[in-house]
Design a protein that fits this description.
By secondary structure, the protein is of the alpha+beta class. 25% of the residues lie in helices and 38% in strands. The chain is globular and about 30 Å long.
């Protein structure tokens, strides 16, 4: 899953908290302009092994 949005500082905190609760392992926050940020996360899913 990949999620990207431009957010205010308050929204960044809310988004990061929610993403951590969802189990995201890698969250990137970049400042695009004054008081505007981009939050990007990528979830790497493990390949499940089928039991025979």
């Amino acid at each position: 899953m990949k999620y990207t949005a431009t957010l205010s500082p308050v929204q960044v905190g809310q988004a990061v908290k929610a993403l951590v609760l969802l189990g995201e392992k890698k969250i990137t926050i970049e400042e695009t302009e004054k008081d505007r940020f981009v939050v990007t996360t990528t979830t790497e899913t493990a390949h499940s092994k089928k039991v025979k």
